[in-house]
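ok so for the tutorial part 2 we go from a plain amino acid sequence to predicted structure tokens. step 1 is just haveing the sequence, like this:
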Amino acid sequence: MARTSYKDLLGAGVHFGHLKRKWNPNMSPYIFMERNGIHVIDLHKTVVKAEEAAAAMKQIAKSGKKILFVSTKKQAKSSLETLAGEVNMPFVTERWPGGMLTNFVTIRKAIRKMSSIDKMKADGTFLTMSKRERLQVDRQRAKLEKDFGSISDLTRLPAALFIIDINKEHIAVREARKLNIPTFAIVDTNSDPRAVDFPIPGNDDATQSIHKIVSIMTEAIKEGLSERKNDRDKSEKDKEEKEESVAAAAPVKETAPAKDAAPAKEAAPVKEAAAEGTKND
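step 2 — the prediction. this is what the tokens look like for a chain of 281 residues:
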């Protein structure tokens, strides 16, 4: 079943590109026409590219790996936080910290610092500090939460990045390419689709357009997670059935009769007769 259609994308305004003078020539295969000085994106090609990207993201999710959603645009913040949160995927909507991927060890230290502050509050250590120190720690915790709260569960490098507006998030694209991390992105007419592995031609400025494409990707992720759960349940069930069949097929161990029991009973009268013969003598 198709995840989207030409009509759905048209209704969300995915076809609106940028002004002709701002276009990137490498986007020409995905441009349908020009109208009133604005490029119109070919939605038939968007449908194909969206299906390809969704299928790839489904497989990544099925393997149990994380996909990092990235966009610091105001139009995308609400959609990313809601949709990525539903599938328990990390996202960056405030600021892309330099070295987020290439210097991931340092980023993890900042996240651990946030966890250590929470531990201090839980075990009562926080209350032993002065009022000024507590205020400083609270401010530090709030800043860390703003920058890294949405990626606190990211214990290792993500398996892929989904980016909205690769021109604005060029640092994220560059870091991912340096580490050979697959990139998915909504690519508008002013962007170079060659910069990412899975470009999805579309309007990366309108809230409705962004929400529509991101929802297609997260639905694919849900499918992958669901299949992963079903496979795990089936594997556990098969394992239990195999253990039960092995136990049923195992031979029942019977207790062997005592070998000397019968002869002992027969020997008793012989001993008594021998004793009587001795007395008679």
